[in-house]
Amino acid sequence: MENFNGFGLAAPLVIALTKMGYSKPTPIQAKAIPILMNGHDLVGIAQTGTGKTAAFALPILNRLLADKRPAPRGGARVLVLAPTRELASQIAQSFRDLSAGLPFEIAVVFGGVPHGAQIRALARGLDVLVATPGRLVDHLDARVANLSGVEFLVLDEVDQMLDLGFIKPIRRIVRDLPKKRQNLFFSATMPTDIRKLAAELLRDPQEVAVTPAAKTADRVEQTVIFVDAARKRDMLVELLADPAMTKTIVFTRTKRGADRVATTLAEAGIGALAIHGNKSQGQRERALAAFRAGQARALVATDIAARGIDIDGVTHIVNFELPEVPEAYVHRVGRTARAGAAGQAVSLCDGSERDQLRAIERLTRLHIFSIDRRGDKAPKPAPVTHKAEATPAPDRPHHQPHRDPRSASQQPHRARQGRRTRPAYQAKSGQGR
Ligand code: AMP
């Protein structure tokens, strides 16, 4: 599926997608949306970072629009259960973004905060309720929530919910739901106990699986520099003063951005070429040939333009902007360290891109080490934490804990294996975040 027009989604949703800059469905979206639009139950084997939230939110919002009804008081038409308050908030925000301008009532319910506002939101009646299981059970027990009007049940990150001990609350919640409903069940892993739970809760589900490109090569040393957006171009010029950067691909989010960055580099005397969708095939081929041949040290590209191109000997990747979709980070970084060579990837992250960085760290299960430039005060964002609603509260899924060093210590870690030489432009290490 090349774009979102073929799904039969209502116009306001397609407009919202365009505004959000989503032009092409991710694989899970391409697979899941038609199944859900047909009213089937779904088991999705997918992890965060694959675009699964929009994969379930879009068909649900489409149905709510097509079949307008008053929101049930004390409850909701759509119930999404998620393991952590952080994820629940993100899901609710995605529903809000995707239904921008539409009169839907969307609320989040999670533990650790007072009950009052949540009770009032429930009393008003909701279209979409995103909840962590423990607090929702509290509301059910207190009889301030009533789930008899639920038409959709979404269980997100089921493996993590079970890890957190939510099986009993989930069963308790499901007991209160109407029998006739559409069920969506997402988990990154599908061991037997989870498969059994799906068989118990779902009716004749269709299954889709996506395996995200989630692992970056260990030979790539990945770092992040926190820098204001306005300083990024100067920073890039400073980075490229390093003569070791002989073959660098600079990724930008937009085509115009690629042109601007290439111009900045050219003005600074650094040979740079841009490739993006507005260039003709001939222009792109000439730029690639010149870059391959070493006639220009830097190639500035958008994700789409860089897709499928294969260039040997790329020494550095610079993410001038972080990608919207975390998987794109993995693809970008995969352009270096080919055929056993080493490589380095530097991401320039401004204040508005912290969530994207976190999403990348979650997907790759790496803590990307931050570095500071000489004379440059890198801001120190708060450490990344994934708060769970209840105890026990591991801050990460269980399936690859060894790759995420955060819980062991808040000290910055270089989560890379392999090459440990300090990049030439790195003034100081040990910069905490
Ligand atoms: P999720 O797996 O739902 O957490 O989504 C991961 C990230 O991808 C989120 O930041 C979304 O905003 C973004 N995203 C989801 N679908 C698309 C798409 N079709 N195009 C671009 N970005 C997307």
CATH class of the largest domain: Alpha Beta
- DSSP strand (E) fraction? 15-25%
Distance between the ends: 40 Å
CATH architecture of the largest domain: 3-Layer(aba) Sandwich
CATH superfamily membership of the largest domain: P-loop containing nucleotide triphosphate hydrolases
Q: Can you count the helices? A: 15
Please give the structural blueprint.
Elements (H helix, E strand, L loop, with lengths): L10 H10 L6 H11 L4 E4 L6 H15 L9 E6 L3 H14 L7 E4 L6 H9 L1 E6 L1 H9 L10 E4 L2 H6 L3 H9 L6 E6 L4 H10 L4 E4 L10 E7 L5 H8 L8 E5 L2 H13 L4 E4 L5 H12 L5 E5 H4 L9 E4 L6 H8 L9 E7 L4 H11 L4 E2 L63
Parallel strand pairs: 1-6, 1-7, 2-4, 2-5, 3-4, 5-6, 8-13, 8-14, 9-11, 9-12, 10-11, 12-13
Helix pairs in contact: 2-3, 3-4, 6-8, 14-15
Bound molecules: adenosine monophosphate.
Key features?
alpha/beta, 2 domains, seven-stranded parallel beta sheet, 15 helices, 14 strands, elongated, disordered C terminus
